[in-house]
């Protein structure tokens, strides 16, 4: 179980970085990571470790934190005339004040009606809904191939994983996969559907994944290299 206790201020040169401290009863050692969604350093601390230990460790890693944060791509807030990756294509965001159709796509233009101050939120809501519809359809196609059943797909804004799967056939997926190449999004969907055959990461599991997605290693590598890019998009 995680619980955010305090925030440490870490200095490197003239920059000051907040580091969120999370105590975790399952943690065996002090661990530092970057939350790409929040664009912030997170320090995971074993339950019995002292707060001073956290301070000392975080400050000893000030250069690493600065370098990691500096490597993050620039935040991309949804806006008018923005070129946006969308389910393997590219769309151009346009605002229409007079239309009363919500959000829709026409010839690679993503139209957004209503007040302009609501554009970013409406774009994000549309992307989430679109990926939810796509991923459910794709998951059921994969499931049919290996004779399993997908009950439901829920899209979330996850941080630590791109997807998860329960024994009951419920999948959770990161909606940010909507920005990835379609083959990459399909790999993650195939990965989670494969867990309905093997609820582990055994060699038997990877054989199922390979059957559904022969180039899965290439897609997995793309995710590792481009994770920060997928998290750079935001409605605020």
The main sheet orders its strands as 1-2-4-3
Task: Please describe the biggest sheet, giving its number of strands, its sense, and whether it closes into a barrel.
Answer: 4 strands, mixed
**Secondary structure: helix percent:** 25-40%
In the CATH hierarchy, what is the class of the largest domain? Alpha Beta
Helix and strand run: EEEEHHEEEEEHEEEHHHE
CATH architecture of the largest domain: 2-Layer Sandwich
Average predicted confidence as pLDDT: 93
What gross morphology would you assign?
Answer: globular
The portion of residues forming beta strands comes to 25-35%
The number of helices is 6
Number of domains: 2
- Class derived from helix and strand content: alpha/beta
Radius of gyration: 20 Å
List low-pLDDT spans: none
Number of strands: 13
What is the end-to-end distance?
29 Å
Can you walk through the features of this model?
The model has no long low-confidence stretch (mean pLDDT 93). The protein is globular. It folds into two domains: 2-71, no CATH class; 83-234, Zincin-like (2-Layer Sandwich). The chain has a four-stranded mixed beta sheet. A four-stranded mixed beta sheet has the order 6-7-9-8, covered by helices on one side. The chain has a three-stranded mixed beta sheet with strand order 10-12-11, with helices on one face. With 236 residues, the protein is an alpha/beta fold. The chain has helices at 51-60, 62-71, 119-145, 182-194, 203-212, 216-230, and strands at 2-12, 15-24, 31-35, 40-46, 76-77, 83-86, 89-96, 103-106, 109-113, 152-156, 163-165, 170-174, 233-234.
């Amino acid at each position: 179980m995680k619980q955010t206790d305090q925030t440490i201020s870490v200095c490197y040169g003239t920059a000051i970085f907040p580091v969120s401290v999370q105590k975790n009863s399952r943690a065996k050692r002090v661990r530092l990571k970057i939350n790409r969604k929040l664009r912030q350093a997170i320090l995971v601390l074993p339950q019995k470790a002292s707060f001073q230990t956290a301070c000392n460790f975080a400050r000893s890693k000030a250069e690493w934190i600065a370098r990691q944060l500096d490597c993050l791509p620039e935040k991309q807030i949804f806006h008018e005339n923005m070129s946006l990756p969308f389910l393997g294509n590219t769309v151009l965001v346009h605002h229409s004040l007079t239309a009363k159709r919500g959000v829709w796509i026409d010839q690679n233009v993503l139209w957004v009606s209503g007040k302009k101050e609501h554009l970013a939120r409406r774009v994000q809501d549309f992307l989430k809904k679109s990926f939810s519809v796509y991923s459910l359809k794709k998951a059921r196609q994969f499931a049919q191939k290996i004779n399993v059943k997908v009950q439901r797909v829920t899209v979330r804004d996850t941080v630590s994983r791109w997807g998860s799967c329960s024994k009951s056939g419920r999948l959770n997926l990161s909606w940010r996969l909507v920005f990835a190449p379609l083959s990459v999004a399909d790999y993650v969907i195939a990965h989670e559907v494969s867990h309905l055959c093997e609820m582990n990461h055994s060699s038997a599991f990877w054989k199922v994944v390979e059957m559904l997605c022969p180039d899965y290693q290439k897609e997995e590598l793309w995710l590792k290299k481009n994770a920060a890019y997928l998290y750079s998009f935001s409605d605020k």
